[in-house]
């Protein structure tokens, strides 16, 4: 009699620590040994090891909270600005030359601020249904605006008053055991976080929600609360890290938390968490944080070299340190983020290492994990709203029925507001066209971004691509002495290269567009600073600057003089960049509205699966859209350098926020499937006019720039909420339908 076949039940993998963490430990040892070989003066000392652990503590604490969010299949891009904002708020509350509160009150208020930020993120994402990357990106920009506004760009220090509160400020110092207290705090937070995620009901609910939210709902798990709770944990961890920094440095600078979200997300992904949700361990995230901080240290500290300096006829050998150029570290961290996210679907889920080990031993390979871990969204776009049909009998009704009508009406109202507040400024033709010049840059970016958003993707890198293209052109003009045509060509090529990488990673490697372009956001910004060594460049041929000049200036450059009259008046105020922008918008608008590609684009964004079934090459459509967005941003960068006759590495900052707001205000849907060129241009006009009005000097008052960025962030959130709850959920349509039923019921009753 043959024995019965038995089924082997393998033990479930540990939720505390596993093989991935062991591999990270080995990699960390090798990396540290490499640093000690390259720079023994720094990495060969116990002080250096202690400094790495101390600096890792704050990053790892934030990574503990981020692990809960990412396992939930969400994302929190606001942790860096939360970290910086909490430190700045503590400084303003505590410093004797500002509010001069006691340390306990300052800590309580900062913790309250952290809770408010976490709740805001959670409610926006769960209750109000704002996509996580949009909600937290906006909070990031708003928080960064608050940091700059509250510090006025200056550092705040309080070492004298800190001596009166040794208990709190000793948290940033070395204890009697010889190590920094922050390391002990990190250890406690890491142990608690690991046990909660791996061994409690909270952790079970988190894994269930991230693995399959719909199944979790059927199992009775309150998934909305689970996701809100994760954002609260993430924000509180960032708050704790900010307070630890305030205790250690006894002061803050406006740069606190810059790029912190990139470091933390990269650490969690490197630690083995899946951007697709349902996978992650706190121990891995902490080791990932240690790896990222160690890499940052190795790159920033450089390595010792010997240089020969010639003084007269005598050559002297001196010791020096070779360090990477300005911007190199953000480039590397951006690459690290993209690579880390690619590791999970292409190596971990396919079990490449396990399969290779089985092949070496001649054993059958284990089954690969399911690759398609993300459910495709259903149809997000809606047909004509009930209100559209109800109001379509009149010309005004047809206007209100358009998705871009809000932007058009707002642009007109804002213009009239400017006329009412400062008619002396607003009616001046040259001032009006000066506003138009500021509008041109944003409108160009919005043109390309309209295609991307209509296709159902997003591009967070457009502002950085603008900077990269302008930096490349400036480098060729100033450093290499190239002619204007070569500089323009190389600037456009650099921007298109960035777009190509975005498209390949998004479409070819199936990475979420917001992650791919977030990585490029830092890579392109770092390269822009790298090319110009972090300095402002100026002084290139006037032939290049003509791209940003008025039409009459160009005619005079070629010794053509127009006679006095209306033609000359217009030529003196209209710039060539404005003409070029409208030409690009016209071509893009015709393609989007009337050409087959425009229909394919909207079909892809409306329902990518249905579009594929209809024979549309959706990958090609998305690829072209991302390339077009990069091209438009590159053109804006070329014009930026010409208009200002110089290039600053901070060019294009916050432009991605402005551009996304422009497209959404103009009728585009954050879920894809909609978008018009008229709407995008009108939305860009709204943002430009809002900035112009807030900077307008009215009776001696004008709003500082940093507060304007906060206001623009709020506008973006409102625009997205209008898209979701007014356009997509058709609140007005349901309200009018209910009123119509009530009215008909009354008529029947009276009849």
N- to C-terminal distance: 88 Å
Spatial sequence of strands, sheet with the most strands: 1-2
Topology, number of strands: 6
Instruction: Classify the oligomer.
Output: single chain
CATH class of the largest domain: Mainly Alpha
Helix and strand content put the structural class at mainly alpha
**SS element count, helices:** 35
Percent helix range: 55-70%
Low-confidence stretches: 1-11, 370-393
Q: How would a textbook summarize the main sheet? A: 2 strands, antiparallel
Rg calc: 28 Å
Domains, number: 2
So, CATH architecture of the largest domain?
Answer: Orthogonal Bundle
Do you know the CATH topology of the largest domain? Answer: ABC transporter involved in vitamin B12 uptake, BtuC
- Sum up the overall morphology in one term: globular
Average per-residue pLDDT, rounded, comes to 84
Strand content range: under 5%
Short summary:
This protein is 69% helix and 3% strand. It has 751 residues and is mostly helical. Strand 3 (303-311) and strand 4 (314-322) form a beta hairpin.
